[in-house]
Amino acid sequence: MFEYERPQRNIDTSRFTPEVIERPVLEDQFLEEFIVNQATLLVGLGEDGLNPESQSASPDTFIPNEYGRSRGRDELNRFFRDPRYLPHINRMFETAMGHIGKAPVSFSPEKRERVARMIENNLSCVIGYYPHVADEAYFNATVVKRGFVSTPRDIEAMAVDSKPLAHTLFCVPKFVIGSSFEAIEGAERYITESVRGKRILLLGGGNSCEDLVYDNKNFSPEVIINVDPYRIRYEDKTETPNPYIRIDTTAEDLELGQKLESVGYPHVDEIWATFSVPFYSNKPEDITAMFENAKKLLAPGGMLRIYPFSLPDRSVNILDRASVEKAQEVLDMNEKLREAYEEAVREINNNPHFNVSIVRVDDDNKVLLIQKV
Questions:
Q1: pLDDT tens per residue, range 98-123
Q2: Nearest CA to 231 among 130, 133, 135?
Q3: Is 2 a member of any domain?
Q4: In what order do the strands lie in the sheet with 354-360?
Q5: Where does residue 363 rank: exposed (0-12), middle (13-18), buried (19+ CB within 10 A)?
Q6: Are 89 and 198 part of one and the same domain?
Q7: In this structure, is residue 6 part of a structural domain?
Q8: For the purposes of burial, counting CB atoms within 10 Å of the CB of 322, is it exposed (0-12), middle (13-18) or buried (19 or more)?
Q9: Which phi and psi (to 5°) does residue 200 adopt?
Q10: I need a surface site. Which of 112, 124, 290, 350 has the fewest CB within 10 A?
Q11: CA 292 to each of CA 22, 79, 210, 288, 297: distance values in angstroms, whole numbers, following the listed order
Q12: What is the pTM of this model?
């Protein structure tokens, strides 16, 4: 049974007014945006020295102004484990819970204008990632396992990336998912119902979807379909808690819709891409084709989730040893890929049949959310 830590200091709870704790989900707002904004506001009010006014921040990025980053993490952890805050945290998730399954409303022109500025300002190249030749050995070596609400089971994976998908794709703060998750009943119900009975399509899931296939706690989709040209090491096992299908192709395959229909799933409720596409796409036209496929495959109300909303900087590993001409060629490709990515998302944002937003989920990364209306 989880036990709360004793609060370490006095906290002014008078700032939690009904206006704050009873804020509704807005029509021009994804549930993920509501959770991040509301959690950010609660943390900002509850922790002296935190500044909640930045709309681009998330509760996981906040640190007290006078402290270093590690101290800030401790402060946030205490916030989410403090029993005086528990009703407010549960209220936030219960409010979001009431909107699961509701038919989406097309975002307003004003929201679309804000998102257009976010698209232009937030798509960046990540220094240090270089897409090597896409062979099976490379992806098996680099893709780590991620559970939905659990952290990876093995030490090697935890050393690389221990962010569960409920955090990176659904924007539930890491400090809610941690050791206090089961005590926050509202969060547990919300995240469980968010995926219950859903048809989930993974784009390049790789070995990272092993934890999803075998995760039967807080995760009960109708099916997991992995579009991946590489065989996954656990596919020989005959029984899995969650139904699993692999389609031996790529996300940009122009016949992907037909191949999904052939296995009984012409449309899906969720499409997830984490460090796969467009992140490791090699051609601008592949990025365009991937988004076209996603638009066709999503069922009404379905959501495409791409994490992180960025591209690798392909120049960092060659500039020291390549010719000037080759370096310039790579830099030009960086720009072409970024332009194709921006143009695809911008076109979808201008389409009233889709809603788009970009949400910061941790220190460095954001998630791109696209919903079919």
A1: 999 999 999 999 999 999 999 988 88
A2: 135
A3: no
A4: 244-247, 223-227, 199-203, 268-274, 298-307, 366-372, 354-360
A5: exposed
A6: no
A7: no
A8: middle
A9: -110, 125
A10: 350
A11: 39, 42, 27, 6, 9
A12: 0.84
Rounded (10°) CA dihedral 350, 355, 361, 367: -60
As for how many domains the chain has, the answer is 2
- pLDDT (tens digit per residue) in 30-41: 999 999 888 877
DSSP secondary structure code for residue 225 in this structure: E
207, two tokens: 């070995």
- Residue 227 parent element (H or E): strand 223-227
What values do phi and psi take at 207, rounded to 5?
Answer: -70, -10
Tell me the pLDDT band of 28, cut-offs 50, 70 and 90.
very high
**pLDDT tens per residue across span 297-354:** 999 999 999 999 998 877 655 555 556 677 778 788 888 999 999 999 999 999 999 9
pLDDT at residue 96, rounded to an integer: 96
Residue 207, SS3?
A: helix
Residue range 273-295: average pLDDT? 93
Residue where a domain terminates, one of 97, 126, 152: 97
Q: Same domain, yes or no, for 35 and 184?
A: no
- Using an 8 Å Cβ cutoff, are 304 and 370 in contact? yes
CA distance 323 to 309: 30
Q: How many residues does the chain have?
A: 373
Domain enclosing residue 31, as ranges: 13-97
